[in-house]
Amino acid sequence: MVTVVLWGANVVVLKALLRFLNAETINVGRFLIAGGVMVPLALRAMGGWPRWDARTWLSVAGVGVLGNTLFQTFFLHGIALSPAGVAGVVNGMVPVLVLPLGLLFGQRFTRRQVAGVALAFCGLLGLLALTRQPGTAVTLAGMAWLLLAATAWALYTVFNRTLSGRVGALPFVAFSLALGCLPYLAFALGHVQISADVPAGAYLGVALSALGANVVAYLAWARGAQVLGAARTSVWNTLAPVIALILSALTLHERLPLSVWLVAGVILSGAALANWPTESGRRAAAPPTAP
Question: Could you tell me which residue ranges the EamA domain spans (predicted)?
């Protein structure tokens, strides 16, 4: 719940920041701030530099590229071309992609989870259909970027559980962020724009986005994937679109058609179906010990 609230709100924050700053400036600031917090926390928790073998370092870095360089690049392009509410809805499609990916890695799912994710997939089809309506705010180009972002995050989620279980949630999140953002930084540093004309609140928004969405939410997400599994954790993320839709309407004054709200309702129904509590689910979701 912490993760979906922060990520739902972060979509609205990013859309607002794009009015004042370009995507490269926003992401560079977010990565530097989040990395500067996460890596010292991980080193302190581990009592020093991690003694991983080369394969583990490469795995953490590779998964980090998926969840940071690729996801952030695709998502910022998508949200620039889409209303914040729509971007939040498409980001909630991650569980549709996690299910088949998880099956490839031997994860098991109940019929209820499959039915819930299938219902969410129906919502995705409805959203894609809206791109064909003249004058709609939902564009095919924006949807394409957002779906690429969802795919990158789905892969990050699937690999997350194995790696965070092996090296620890905090070290995984910290070093996957620090290493995974290096390709992006190499490209984006030359495009950073700092101007006195930009209000101080915009830079504060970058800092809040980094600390909330890239620190607190990443830790909660990694821990949730460990306890609940990649598919169940991802299905919870379908709550984030509802938060994004409500906040975008209240703060950005986006007036999305009823059809978009109906699609969000389909997604949320799928999430509720897939996560309906069972006895085994309650045991799996018991509060974990600290990493």
Answer: 2-128, 141-275
